[in-house]
Amino acid sequence: MTDTNGNGAKLSPENAQMLETLQLTRKDFVSDQEVRWCPGCGDYSILAQTQKTMPDFGVPRENIVFVSGIGCSGRLPYYMNTYGFHSIHGRAPTLATGLKLANPALMVWVITGDGDALSIGGNHILHSMRRNVDIKVIMFNNRIYGLTKGQASPTSEFGKKTKSSPLGTVDYPIQPLSIALAAEASFVARSVDTHTEHLQETLEKAGRHHGSTFVEVLQNCNIFNDGAYRDFTERDVRDDRMLVLEHGKPMIFGKDRDKGIRLNGLHPEVVTIGENGVTEADLLVHDEEADDPYLAYMLSRMWYPDYPVPVGVLRNISRPTHDQLVVGQIEDAIAKQGAGDITKLVLAGETWTVE
Prior knowledge:
The protein contains 13 helices and eleven strands. By secondary structure, it is α/β, with parallel strands linked by helices. Helix 2 (43-53) packs across helix 8 and helix 5 packs across helix 6.
């Protein structure tokens, strides 16, 4: 038995041989459904990068499932030529957990939004991450409720004026990556809808991870929250206002690659290489594989304009997955007590007949 399909499941020699000859393209993952989002929506880009990335895993389409909740992002399973569930509000991680337990060979993706995942779905996504369920959660974050026409969401910035907060919201926003790290997700990353190459790279890394995977995609809603991230994602400013994380490399950014992040006590600070004796050796080196989440958590709190916004993989660690542990328990119980008999179990103890 060998693991060759990138989703943590073991394949028979026959299936492993089949995968060696499996040649899929993006077209194989495009469904016959008309894609229907608002013109200019960032969801189109996320869908396209997802479809482009899927062939790289070498997983048969019948072994892939996309599960979504409610919201604009919930349409995505219709547009993927794989199995899919359009589930109920906030419960996509729960459905995905059951699927992975019932059939560990499946590659399970959860598509959700900031409202769906972090409001009514907060409890469900939190526990899927702490259990290290082997599912890939992709959260579209446009900082607004789009499908229900522009109300403040859990990630809307403080003071945001919306249809549900005409005087400005008085709620402090959730930091999604901080929540994922606090819940002990084993893979945590961020990308941007319009940064297509980076998004493809991030989705591929997420797809190859075995364990609870959480990717925040900063996504534009050009109808109800246009330009939510424009101050730092636009092509002419992003080099100076975003930090692209690379494992094992110092945290350098800027058009001239002369800015960096170093630690000042317990706080990160932006420095210029060559000024005040600062050298590249003084900068923080990114370690996505660090077992403790302290560095990753610090990065999750960095935000423009005080800091460049980090994108890339913040954390990527290996630990036993939920389905592996559950299957292991079942196998141990069978080894010690036998396979069991459901009829004997039902009839065990006191029984009675209702006339």
